[in-house]
Amino acid sequence: MKSSFDSIATPPAFSAQKHCTMDRARHRVVLCAMAGLLAATCAAAQVVTIDTHGNARTGPGSAPVDRRYSQIQPTHVALTQSELDAKTRLELIRVMQSEQGFAMRPFPRGHKGLTLVANGKLEPAGEAYLAMATEQGLCAKPGDRLVLSDVKFEKNKIVFDLNGGPDPKHRFLRHIQIGTGAGTNPVVQDNGQEAMGARLTLAFQNHVPELTGGDVKALLSPLISFDLKTPIQAFTDTLPPKLKEAILNHHVMVGMSTDMVLFAMGSPQSKSREIEGQMPFEEWIYGQPPKDVQFVRINGNRVIRVEVAKMGETPLIFTNDEVTGLMRTDGTPLIPDKTTRTVAMGDAERDPNTQAPTAPPSLRKPGETLPQNDPKESTGVMRPVQFPKPKPTEDSAGQTGATPAPAAEPAKPQTDTPEDAHPAPSSSSQQHTGSN
After folding, report:
1. Verdict on whether the full-model pTM lies above 0.85
2. How far apart are the C-alpha atoms of 59 and 126, rounded to whole Å?
3. Which of 148, 294, 313, 383 is the most exposed place for a label (fewest CB within 10 A)?
4. Main-chain dihedrals φ then ψ at residue 224, nearest 5 degrees
5. By C-alpha distance, which of 34, 122, 21 is closest to 74?
6. Which residues, 6+ apart, have CB-to-CB distance to 320 below 8 Å?
7. How far is CA 397 from CA 192, 375, 384, 392, in A?
8. CATH level 2 (architecture), domain 27-47+239-318
9. 230 vs 4: CA distance, rounded Å
10. Band (33; pLDDT cuts 50, 70, 90)
């Protein structure tokens, strides 16, 4: 397999360091096929971080949740006390139905969906919001386009179905069939696919007040942006300012997701897959000499290493994560705490010089001690165990001792014939009989 660098003429001014970088790129592309075969074998050796509490926690002493799932800033839209009439309701349906916008937060699927209180908070938020998105799956990520496919009015709520809604069409008619025998046909033709939409509820205190289309869009602005934007503008508006500036300036940072890299740099000129140790990764290559060449190393969905090779200069390598801290609610860098532990999938190799051996298995609870290690004041002095002595008995002679064994019965003399048999005739009678 040949690399894309084979057909590029390298100028004489290109230094030896740059030649080494290009040779390494060729070697990476050659190992692409081998890495693909070994990826399935070594995938089990990836390191997975598991929360000991089972989910992400918020509060002091624990890792803050991602800012995309945190509580929103309430809006300040002036609302009237008059109740919504039928004419205004029809006007709102005409304006809002089939309206398009951009998602500012992740929208989870499911029948319940998100609930936004007018000029108030979002429910759920934080840990519960993240759990809903994990269990139900996402309908739209931040920056994706949303379509208000349906608008419904209730007593004090306005319910919006997004991207088709979370419920499949004809939920009841799809299970009804008409016909006899083999000619049975369903009432409604359905392909059986599950709905992939979301639901958003705009709640008010007592009743839905008089509103205009602009008021509704202003109330939904923390979650949906209805401004005219390009896809990259809609995506970067959901990010912190420093990260937004980096993407708009086409700068790749360690910790970015693949979507961020694509918005910042576009599709790479070439890709290669390799394995370092037991970790498989993918290398995205941007640029061609004599211009700058960037090697973006991606593991899973995150950038773990960025290398910038410039002509005549030493390559610059970046490995410190700069994005994870920006995406957290408090903006602090990611620091492991006591609530998380790292589990290695597969055979874990230990360094005897730096790591202690694994403790042997035990049935004791954490902090439990053995009886011999307990203080004497609480347990007393350990003495030998004494078994009870056998209870003595007295025989007929008044002597103390063990119970005598029962005497054996005298043996009866053995006889050749049974007791009820007749006696044998004598010899004289036999002789008398013979003489007769």
Report:
1. no
2. 10
3. 383
4. -130, 130
5. 122
6. 254
7. 99, 55, 38, 15
8. 2-Layer Sandwich (3.30)
9. 32
10. very low
Cα within 13 Å of Cα(141), Cβ side: 7
Q: Per-residue pLDDT for 49 more than 50?
A: no
Encode pLDDT of 110-159 as tens digits: 888 999 999 999 999 988 999 999 999 999 999 899 999 999 999 899 99
Structure tokens at 289: 């000499």
Read off the pLDDT band of 32 (50, 70, 90): very low
Specify the amino acid at residue 208. Answer: V
Q: Which two tokens stand for residue 431?
A: 């002789």
Characterize the bridge pairing of strands 293-299 and 279-286: antiparallel
Tell me the residue ranges of DSSP E strands in 336-428: 340-344, 393-394, 400-401
The strand ranges marked E within 234-385 are 270-276, 279-286, 293-299, 302-309, 316-318, 340-344
Report, as an integer, the average pLDDT of 212-239.
89
List the Cα angle 56/59/65 in 5-degree steps: 40
Name the DSSP letter for residue 163. T
Amino acid at 320: N
What is the model's pLDDT at position 384? 81
Q: Domain map of the chain by residue range?
A: 27-47+239-318, 75-232
Q: Do 178 and 148 form a contact (C-beta atoms < 8 A)?
A: no
Instruction: Provide the token pair at 348.
Output: 């874990």
